C-alpha cells in the first residue's frame, strides 16, 4: 500500500484535487472498505483524498424546514444507529447500521461510504431503499439528486462519476403510523456480512396497509426493491395468505448467487422466510404506534 | 514522501516522520515504540489493534497515522496510573481472562470504551461490546466475568 494522501478542507478544494489527479485518485471517508482493498492490493490508487476535514459533510441532523433527515457523508454507522431522529422515524435503518461489523468498524465506517462501496450485501442499502432516500451528488459543475433506487448500477458500481463526491443522503419524513424492520441473516451474530438482508417499511391505517416497501440485500447484483411484493400488500389488511404471496413475489424477484457464504437455493428460501418475518415485525411496531 | 506529524498518545506528544500510507498501528509500534497494541489481521477483523481515539474504540490498523493528528489517542500503556493498574487490568488478571495475552490490550480498551459509555452493562451488552475482539484462547467466559466484575464494582 503506497499513495499520496491529501486532506482538502472544503468541497471546492476536493473537486480541484480530484480533477487534478483522477483517474488515479480515490476519495476516502472512514477507509474501512478502501484501506482493506488497498492492503489486499485489489485497488492501488496513487492518490487518496481524505474527506474527513470537510465540515459541511459531518453529522446526522433533522432539518425542520425541508422535513427531512440529512445523513452527512462523514456520519459514521455509530452516529446513524444512535441518532434520535433516525431511531424515532426509521428504527430499521438505525438497526441496520448497528449490525455493521464491530463497534470499532462502526466508529470509523460511514453509511454513505457503505452505499458508495456498493457491495450487493451493503448493510444499510435495503433499509435506505424502503424510505425514499435521496443521494446528493456534487461535482465540479453543480449538484444532482439521485433516488436511492437509481443509485446502484452493479456490484461495486454506482452512478457516481470519477469527478463527483456524495455529500449527503436525505430522507423525507415518513407517512404517519409508519414502521419498519430490517433482518440480517448471517451465520455469526457479529462481524459477518449478510447472507440475506431484508428491509420492510409500512404505513398502516386502521389495520390497512396504505403503503408498503420491501427491499432485499445480498441476493442480486445490487440491493433491490420488490415492487411486486409491495403491490400485494398495498391497500390491504395483511393476512397470512397475503404474507405468503408477498414472500413468493420476493423469492421470484431475487437473483441470488452461490458463494462461500451460502447456496443460491438457500438464499432464495430464506428470502421467503425473512420477508414474512420482517412484515410481521413491522406490522407489530405500527400497531404499537397506533395504540399510543 | 515523509511528512512530520505530531500525535497525542496517552497525553504525551510524539513528533514523528511518517509516510502518508502508514497506519496508526504501525506508527505506534514501530516509530513510537509502544508495542502493547498488537497486530493480528491488519484488516479490521480481529480487534487486537484496538485503541481509543477521542474516547472511541477504533481498529488502529484501519486509521492512517496522518489522519490521527489532532486526536487524543489512548493505548494500553496509558491506562495504569502512578504504577497502579487500571481496575480492568486488575480484573483480567484476577479472573484469569488472559492466557497468551495477544488479544488482551484490545479487549481491555474495548471494555473501557463500553464501560465509559454504559457503566452497568448486561452480559449481552458486554458480549456485543467485545464482538470486534477475537480471542483464540479463553473462550470469552472469563473475559466477560472480568468486565462484569469491574462494572459491579467487585
Ligand atoms: C471488519 C469489517 C467488518 C465489516 N462488516 C460489514 C458489515 O457487516 N456490513 C457491511 O455492509 N459492511 C461491512 N464492512 C464494510 C465497511 O465497513 C462498510 O461498507 C462501511 O460503511 C464503508 O464506509 P467507509 O466510510 O469506511 O468507506 P471508505 O472505505 O472510505 O469508502 C468506500 C468506497 O466508497 C467511496 N466513497 C466513500 N465516501 C464517498 C463519498 N462521500 N463520495 C463518493 N465516494 C465515496 C470510496 O472511494 C470507496 O470506493 C466491514 C468492514 C470491515 C473492515
Ligand atoms: S490488526 Fe487491526 S483488527 Fe486485526
Ligand atoms: S488470551 Fe490468547 S488470544 Fe485471547
Shape of chain B: globular
**Structural class assignment of chain A:** alpha+beta
Helix content of chain A: 25-40%
Sequence of strands across the biggest β-sheet of chain B = 2-1-5-3-4
Quick check: average pLDDT of chain A? 96
Structure characterization notes:
The complex is a heterodimer of chains A (292) and B (154). Chain A folds into three domains: 4-50, Uridine Diphospho-n-acetylenolpyruvylglucosamine Reductase, domain 2 (2-Layer Sandwich), CATH 3.30.43; 55-172, Uridine Diphospho-n-acetylenolpyruvylglucosamine Reductase, domain 3; 178-291, CO dehydrogenase flavoprotein, C-terminal domain (Enolase-like, domain 1, 2-Layer Sandwich). Chain A is built from eleven helices and 14 strands. Chain A has helices at 11-21, 34-39, 77-82, 84-89, 91-98, 103-106, 111-117, 125-129, 227-233, 240-253, 264-291, and strands spanning 4-6, 25-28, 47-50, 60-63, 68-72, 134-139, 142-147, 152-154, 157-158, 165-172, 178-185, 196-205, 208-217, 224-225. In chain A, a hairpin with a 2-residue loop joins β6 (134-139) and β7 (142-147). In chain B, a hairpin with a 2-residue loop joins β1 (3-9) and β2 (12-18). In chain B, α2 crosses α5 (141-151). A five-stranded mixed beta sheet of chain B has the order 2-1-5-3-4, with helices on both faces. Helices cover 31% and strands 16% of the residues of chain B. Chains A and B meet through α2 and α6 of A and β4 and α3 of B. The structure holds flavin-adenine dinucleotide and FE2/S2 (inorganic) cluster (2 copies). Residues 39-42, 44-49, 59, 61 of chain B line the site of one FE2/S2 (inorganic) cluster (FES).
Amino acid at each position: 500500500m503506497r499513495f499520496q494522501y491529501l486532506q482538502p478542507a472544503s468541497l471546492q478544494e476536493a473537486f480541484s484535487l480530484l480533477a487534478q489527479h483522477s483517474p488515479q485518485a480515490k476519495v476516502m471517508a472512514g477507509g474501512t472498505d478502501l484501506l482493506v482493498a488497498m492492503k489486499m492490493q485489489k485497488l492501488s490508487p496513487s492518490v487518496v483524498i481524505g474527506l474527513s476535514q470537510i465540515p459541511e459533510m459531518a453529522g446526522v441532523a433533522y432539518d425542520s424546514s425541508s422535513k427531512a433527515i440529512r445523513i452527512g457523508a462523514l456520519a459514521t454507522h455509530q452516529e446513524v444507529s444512535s441518532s434520535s431522529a433516525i431511531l424515532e422515524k426509521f428504527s430499521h435503518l438505525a438497526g441496520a447500521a448497528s449490525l455493521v461489523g464491530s463497534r470499532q468498524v462502526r466508529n470509523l465506517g460511514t453509511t454513505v461510504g457503505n452505499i458508495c462501496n456498493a457491495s450487493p450485501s451493503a448493510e444499510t442499502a435495503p433499509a435506505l431503499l424502503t424510505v425514499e432516500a435521496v443521494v446528493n451528488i456534487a461535482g465540479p459543475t453543480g449538484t444532482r439528486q439521485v433516488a436511492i433506487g437509481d443509485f446502484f448500477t452493479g456490484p461495486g458500481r454506482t452512478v457516481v462519476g470519477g469527478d463527483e463526491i456524495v455529500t449527503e443522503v436525505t430522507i423525507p419524513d415518513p407517512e404517519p403510523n409508519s414502521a419498519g424492520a430490517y433482518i440480517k441473516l448471517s451465520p455469526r451474530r457479529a462481524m459477518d456480512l449478510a447472507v440475506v438482508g431484508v428491509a420492510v417499511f409500512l404505513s398502516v391505517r386502521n389495520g390497512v396497509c396504505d403503503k408498503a416497501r420491501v427491499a432485499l440485500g445480498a441476493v442480486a447484483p445490487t440491493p433491490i426493491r420488490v415492487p411486486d411484493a409491495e403491490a400485494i400488500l398495498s391497500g390491504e389488511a395483511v393476512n397470512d395468505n397475503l404474507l405468503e404471496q408477498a414472500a413468493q413475489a420476493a423469492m421470484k424477484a431475487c437473483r441470488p448467487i452461490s458463494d462461500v457464504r451460502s447456496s443460491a437455493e438457500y438464499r432464495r428460501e430464506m428470502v421467503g422466510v425473512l420477508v414474512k418475518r420482517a412484515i410481521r415485525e413491522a406490522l407489530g411496531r405500527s400497531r404499537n404506534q397506533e395504540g399510543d | 514522501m515523509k511528512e512530520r506529524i505530531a500525535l497525542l498518545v496517552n497525553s504525551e506528544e510524539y513528533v514523528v516522520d511518517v509516510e502518508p500510507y502508514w497506519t496508526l498501528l504501525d506508527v505506534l509500534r514501530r516509530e513510537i515504540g509502544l508495542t502493547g497494541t498488537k497486530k493480528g489481521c491488519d484488516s479490521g477483523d480481529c480487534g487486537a489493534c484496538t485503541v481509543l481515539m477521542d474516547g472511541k474504540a477504533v481498529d488502529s490498523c484501519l486509521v492512517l497515522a496522518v489522519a490521527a493528528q489532532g486526536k487524543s489517542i489512548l493505548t494500553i500503556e496509558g491506562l495504569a496510573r502512578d504504577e497502579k493498574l487500571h481496575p480492568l487490568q486488575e480484573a483480567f488478571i484476577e479472573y484469569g481472562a488472559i492466557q497468551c495475552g495477544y488479544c488482551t490490550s484490545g479487549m481491555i480498551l474495548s471494555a473501557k470504551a463500553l464501560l465509559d459509555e454504559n457503566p452497568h452493562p448486561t452480559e449481552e451488552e458486554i458480549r456485543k461490546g467485545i464482538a470486534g475482539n477475537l480471542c483464540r484462547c479463553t473462550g470469552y467466559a472469563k473475559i466477560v466475568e472480568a468486565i462484569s466484575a469491574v462494572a459491579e464494582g467487585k
